[in-house]
Design goal:
Layout lengths: L2 E2 L2 E5 L6 H10 L3 E3 L2 H11 L4 H5 L2 H17 L7 E4 L4 H8 L5 H6 L3 E2 L2 E5 L14 H17 L4 E4 L6 H16 L2
Parallel strand pairs: 1-5, 2-4, 2-6, 3-4, 6-7
């Protein structure tokens, strides 16, 4: 039996605004879990590794990220509202992208259930220090991420871009998300 916790997932492909929304939720006082892949990449770069080195064995990288996500979620309070920048089920899509069988991830996802999943509409792509995906891969990831959550039975709430004006779009996205959390 699945247990519904007060955990909410913010997901979408690279450059969809997840980190911006998570940071804004943190400023509002909510507990957040950052994107664990970015946290890991940043930690390893500080140790002297390059992004190319970290991502040269993509299957190993994805398995490591899954392990880190599981460990982070095990430490999260079960009785509090928590927002996650990507969660364990996101690994289903990333496993599929790099050719791994996602069965092990799907089995892990049967244990607990997030309250809701917010799927952010893709924004114009911006390359940064941690992204290795191209536009074709991002399109495929968007589809696979949404399918992964829907196939697991989660309620997926689509969060549009709203407007090209960044600050207004962020405010409207936050308003939509919080309306679904506090209704």
């Amino acid at each position: 039996m699945k247990i519904k916790l007060n955990w909410y997932v913010i997901t979408g492909g690279p450059s969809s605004g997840k980190t911006t929304i998570i940071n804004e939720l943190s400023k509002l006082g909510y507990l957040i879990v950052p994107n664990m892949a970015r946290v890991y990449i940043d930690q390893e770069i500080v140790k002297g590794k390059s992004l190319k080195e970290l991502r040269s064995y993509e299957t190993k990288f994805q398995r490591k990220i899954l392990k880190i996500k599981i460990e982070a979620e095990e430490k999260m309070p079960k009785d509090k509202i928590v927002f996650l920048d990507n969660a364990v089920p996101c690994s289903i899509a990333y496993y599929q992208i790099c050719g791994l069988d996602p069965k092990e991830v799907i089995q892990l996802c049967q244990k607990e259930q997030y309250r809701k999943v917010f799927f952010l509409e893709q924004l114009p792509f911006e390359q940064d220090r941690a992204r290795t995906e191209n536009l074709k891969t991002i399109g495929k990831l968007n589809r696979l991420l949404r399918e992964a959550y829907e196939n697991l039975g989660y309620e997926v709430v689509f969060v549009p871009r709203f407007t090209p004006i960044r600050d207004i779009s962020i405010a409207k996205r936050l308003e939509l998300i919080l309306t679904h959390v506090h209704y």
